[in-house]
């Protein structure tokens, strides 16, 4: 996983930004419908996006043929269903005229007249009356009538969506999410209006849950595997390197402070590192700058950016600190700013790092990730090239460069360049078989090309290398329960309240889909 964690950029063409961010290990602001696991186009043609409002009732606004101006004797000769339809059509005329009380009375008459076995018609009458109640902002009545309509016709999209909107108005977000999730699945994720509501509710739920949990949580050290993965995204990080010969003097082995913290690093005894760094800093020892950076790094790892920033600021402004230390501090502060949704400050820090340490491969790697997410693909490729030139063995930069080139070719509809990028992925996974991100990025490209069998093989490889990575299960699909379990674990390790909110949103979306599947028997195209 890369250390740089930018947020979602502004809109642009190309692959969904939420997928890009997940693939580079980035907690982001979720985009429309981003968190749904079933939105993959296996074997189906995409329909045009629908943006139509669902405000009007169903059925003609004029009476059915032969009934215009019907007299009471004529009505008496009609079947009960025809009389119900006549009342509904009259209600539709009132509805379009804005006379909602009269429309409600007509729909009520239609419900009373309709034979109970005519479930389809009866569900329409309830849904129409709910539409009139909606215009009067009578949300409880809307929910009651939509529930009647759904009971009669469980996959009634209009009633489900209208009930979802009413539930949201009353603050019933969980029930709203289930309804709008069903709508999104039934519409094959093609209606922007329902996708926007789903996205809105998921964000609200995520923020509410994260706010409560984050303020009460105890700082939690990530797993050794996560910490190693984090440091592996740096190649010029002095503080993550093993103790040098000159630092391993026998007389120093029992000393407290930075050298002791480095010893704990080697032993993977991470919980003691912050306290040892603090001893070095408070004593004004010779490794104060290193101790500040190491402490800041572990503050970031446990999600305490408030404590990390002053330490990073001090290192960056220390004239006697080495260039490598200052550049590394700038990269980490830039990543922190992106978590805080301050991309301009992040860009400034990455650029400053490049100015003071132009031979530092880490600068170009992390700035390249940022450029991808900001839709500056050509600049991203340039940064990855510079990183690879300085560090030819940088597997992450090689994989992400391939993805940048693939995305550029894919969005530019250039088949020959797409194939060239796909060949590049094959070369990356052959040369770097232990790079999980190489498999994940290649799998996304294969999915875009509808090579689903090959994509699943790549996702399986990624899971084998990083079994604790919840987002891999999102892309692979088909295992909602596993994804939910992994998201719940990831929530406890979130490094910021914003990241925790995103994870809650992902988890809630997955859970809503399992509930919808049970309730309505819906099967997603991907399963």
From TrEMBL:
It is found in: Mitochondrion outer membrane. Its main location: mitochondrion. Belongs to the Tom70 family. GO terms for molecular function: mitochondrion targeting sequence binding; protein transmembrane transporter activity. The chain crosses the membrane at residues 20-39. The gene is tomm70. Keywords: Membrane, Mitochondrion, Mitochondrion outer membrane, Repeat, TPR repeat, Transmembrane, Transmembrane helix. The keyword Transmembrane applies. One of its GO terms (biological process) is protein insertion into mitochondrial inner membrane. This is Translocase of outer mitochondrial membrane 70 homolog A (S. cerevisiae). InterPro entries: TPR-like_helical_dom_sf, TPR_rpt. Residues 42-57 have a biased composition (Basic and acidic residues). TPR repeats lie at residues 84-117, 327-360, 361-394, 436-469. Residues 41-81 are annotated as: Disordered. The keyword Cytoplasm does not apply. It is a single-pass membrane protein. Signal peptide: none annotated. GO terms for cellular component: mitochondrial outer membrane. Pfam families: TPR_1, TPR_8.
């Amino acid at each position: 996983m890369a250390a740089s964690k930018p947020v979602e950029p502004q809109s642009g063409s190309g692959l969904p930004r939420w997928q890009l961010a997940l693939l580079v290990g980035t907690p982001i602001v979720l985009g429309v419908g981003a968190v749904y696991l079933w939105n993959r186009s296996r074997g189906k043609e995409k329909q045009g996006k629908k943006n139509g409002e669902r405000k009007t009732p169903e059925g003609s606004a004029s009476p059915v043929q032969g009934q215009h101006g019907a007299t009471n004797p004529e009505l008496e000769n009609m079947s009960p269903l025809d009389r119900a339809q006549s009342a509904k059509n009259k209600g539709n005329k009132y509805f379009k005229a804005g006379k909602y009380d009269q429309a409600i009375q007509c729909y009520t008459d239609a419900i009373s007249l309709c034979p109970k076995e005519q479930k389809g018609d009866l569900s329409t009458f309830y849904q129409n009356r709910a539409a009139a109640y909606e215009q009067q902002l009578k949300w409880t009545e809307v929910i009651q009538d939509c529930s009647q309509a759904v009971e009669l016709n469980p996959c009634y999209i209009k009633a489900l969506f209208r009930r979802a909107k009413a539930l949201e108005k009353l603050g019933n977000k969980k029930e709203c999410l289930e309804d709008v999730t069903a709508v999104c699945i039934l519409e094959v994720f093609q209606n922007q209006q329902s996708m926007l509501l789903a996205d809105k509710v998921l964000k609200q739920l995520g923020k509410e849950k994260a706010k409560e949990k984050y303020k009460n949580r105890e700082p939690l050290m990530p797993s050794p595997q996560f910490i190693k993965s984090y440091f592996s995204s740096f190649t010029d990080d002095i503080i993550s390197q093993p103790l040098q010969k000159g630092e391993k003097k026998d007389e120093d082995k029992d000393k407290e402070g930075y050298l002791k913290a480095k010893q704990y690093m080697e032993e993977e005894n991470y919980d003691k590192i912050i306290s040892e760094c603090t001893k070095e800093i408070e004593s004004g020892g010779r490794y104060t700058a290193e101790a500040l950076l190491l402490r800041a790094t572990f503050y970031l790892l446990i999600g305490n950016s408030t404590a990390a920033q002053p330490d990073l600021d001090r290192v960056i402004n220390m004239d006697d600190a080495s260039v490598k230390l200052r550049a590394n501090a700038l990269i980490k502060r830039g990543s922190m700013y992106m978590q805080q949704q301050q991309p301009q400050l992040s860009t400034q820090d990455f650029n400053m790092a490049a100015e003071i340490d132009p031979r530092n491969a880490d600068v170009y790697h992390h700035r390249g990730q940022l450029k991808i997410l900001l839709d500056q693909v050509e600049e991203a490729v340039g940064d990855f090239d510079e990183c690879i030139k300085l560090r030819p063995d940088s597997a992450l930069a090689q994989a992400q460069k391939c993805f940048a080139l693939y995305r550029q070719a894919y969005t530019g509809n250039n088949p020959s360049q797409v194939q060239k990028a796909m060949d590049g992925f094959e070369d990356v996974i052959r040369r770097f078989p232990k790079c999980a991100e190489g498999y994940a990025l290649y799998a996304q490209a294969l999915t875009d090309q509808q090579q689903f069998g090959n994509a699943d093989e790549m996702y399986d490889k990624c899971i084998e290398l990083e079994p604790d990575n919840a987002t891999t299960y999102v892309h692979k699909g088909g295992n909602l329960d596993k994804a939910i379990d992994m998201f719940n674990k990831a929530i406890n390790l979130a490094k910021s309240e914003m990241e925790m909110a995103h994870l809650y949103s992902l988890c809630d979306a997955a859970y809503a889909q399992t509930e919808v599947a049970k309730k309505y028997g819906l099967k997603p195209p991907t399963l």
